[in-house]
Design goal:
30% of the residues lie in helices and 18% in strands. The chain is α/β, with parallel strands linked by helices and 326 residues long. The protein has a 12-stranded mixed beta sheet. Helix 1 packs parallel to helix 2 and helix 3 runs parallel beside helix 5. The two termini are 26 Å apart.
C-alpha cells in the first residue's frame, strides 16, 4: 500500500558517506562517524536492491554521497544501474571536484543528469564554506558541459550572513553558461541551530529580493528533474542574459511533501523513507544475515513513508547529511 496517494518511483542511492569537502550545512565540525568499508554496500548489493526497486515501479535513480566520485567503482555502479530494465533516468549529485577527470566516463556509463554544489564564486568564501578549491569545481562544470549531459543543475544552499552577496554572481554565471541554478533552504541536518534566524534565509525572502532587482516569472510547466524545485524565469536588467532559477523551500513552502516520490538508501544500507524523519530500515543487515528479499523491505519503507517531514517540529539531527545521503 502506498500511503497518501503518492507514487514512489525515485530511489536516491548513497554510495559512500566519505567526502573530500566539509560543507558547513552537511557535516558537523569534528565529525568522525565514517562507515568502515565492510559497512558500505558492495556494488552487487546496490544493484540487487535497485533491480528489486524496478520491479516495484521505480524508474528514477540518483547516485549520491558523501561525495560519490570518491568511490573507486562508481563507473561500474552507474553502468550496471543504467543497464537494468526499467531504469528511465540516472542522475548524480556531486561537489564537482572530480568531475573534470570522470565526466566523460560517467556519461558513457549512463548518467544523464548531474547536480553540482556551488555555494559561492569567490574562492576564499568557497573554501570557508566547503574547505575545498573552487578552481576544481569550475573545471568540473566546464568538462561536464562538454561531455553533453542532458541536464546540469547548480545547487546553492542559502546561508544568511555567509553567501548572500554571491547570489547575483551565481545567477549571472549560470545564465551565461545556460545552466539551471537552484537555491535551497537550510535544513537542520548537521545541527539543530541551522534554522536559527542568524543562519536561515528562506526562498521567499530571496525571491522578494530578486523581484526588487527585476522580474520572476513562474514556469509551472518546466520539470527538468524529479525533485521539489519550483522554477522561474529571472530577468534582471543589469545581467546580460535571463536565468532559469529553481527554489527548494523544505522549511517554508506549504504542502512541500505533498508530491514527494522518493526513498533514500544510505551507504551503510539503511532504507530511509523520509529525510526529515529518523526512521530507517536496516536493509543491509537483513540482506547479509538472513538473505532477505529486498522487495519486502522496499515495500515496508514505502508503507512507512510519513505524510510530512519533521523539520519544523523541533527536529534534532542524529545522523548528518553526509551519512544519510544527499
Amino acid at each position: 500500500m502506498v500511503p497518501f496517494d503518492r507514487i514512489i518511483d525515485y530511489l536516491r542511492i548513497s554510495v559512500t558517506d566519505h567526502c573530500n569537502e566539509r560543507c558547513l550545512y552537511c557535516m558537523p565540525e569534528g565529525y568522525k562517524g565514517w562507515s568502515q568499508r565492510q559497512d558500505h554496500m558492495t556494488s552487487t548489493e546496490i544493484i540487487r536492491v535497485a533491480e528489486a526497486a524496478t520491479e516495484l515501479g521505480f524508474r528514477k535513480f540518483r547516485l549520491t554521497g558523501g561525495e560519490p566520485l570518491l568511490r573507486s567503482d562508481i563507473i561500474e555502479i552507474a553502468r550496471r544501474l543504467w543497464d537494468l530494465p526499467g531504469v528511465q533516468t540516472l542522475g548524480l549529485s556531486t561537489n564537482g571536484t572530480r568531475l573534470a577527470e570522470m565526466a566523460v566516463d560517467l556519461k558513457q556509463a549512463g548518467v544523464r543528469s548531474v547536480n553540482i554544489s556551488l555555494d559561492a564564486l569567490d574562492a576564499k568564501l568557497y573554501k570557508r564554506i566547503t574547505g575545498g578549491r573552487l578552481e576544481s569545481v569550475l573545471s568540473g562544470i566546464e568538462t561536464a558541459q562538454s561531455a553533453g549531459f542532458e541536464v546540469i543543475k547548480i545547487n546553492c544552499v542559502l546561508m544568511r550572513g555567509v553567501n548572500e552577496h554571491e547570489f547575483l554572481p551565481l545567477i549571472r554565471f549560470t545564465a551565461e553558461h545556460d545552466m539551471l541554478l537552484r537555491f535551497i533552504e537550510l535544513m537542520p541536518l548537521s545541527s539543530a541551530n541551522m534554522l536559527d534566524q542568524t543562519n536561515f534565509l528562506s526562498v521567499t525572502e530571496l525571491m522578494s529580493r530578486l523581484e526588487t532587482e527585476g522580474k520572476l516569472i513562474p514556469r509551472s510547466d518546466f520539470r527538468p528533474g524529479h525533485g521539489p524545485a519550483r522554477y522561474y524565469d529571472c530577468t534582471i536588467p543589469r545581467l546580460r542574459k535571463p536565468a532559469r532559477l529553481g527554489f527548494i523551500g523544505a522549511i517554508t513552502t506549504p504542502h512541500f511533501c505533498e508530491t514527494c516520490n522518493k526513498l533514500r538508501m544510505t551507504a551503510d544500507g539503511k532504507l530511509r523513507p523520509c529525510l526529515g524523519h529518523h526512521g530507517e530500515i536496516d536493509l543491509l543487515h537483513h540482506l547479509r544475515s538472513q538473505n532477505a528479499d529486498p522487495l519486502e523491505l522496499l515495500r515496508e519503507a514505502i508503507a512507512n513513508k510519513p505524510e510530512n517531514h519533521g523539520f519544523n517540529d523541533h527536529y534534532q539531527p542524529v545522523r548528518p547529511m553526509t551519512a544519510i545521503g544527499g
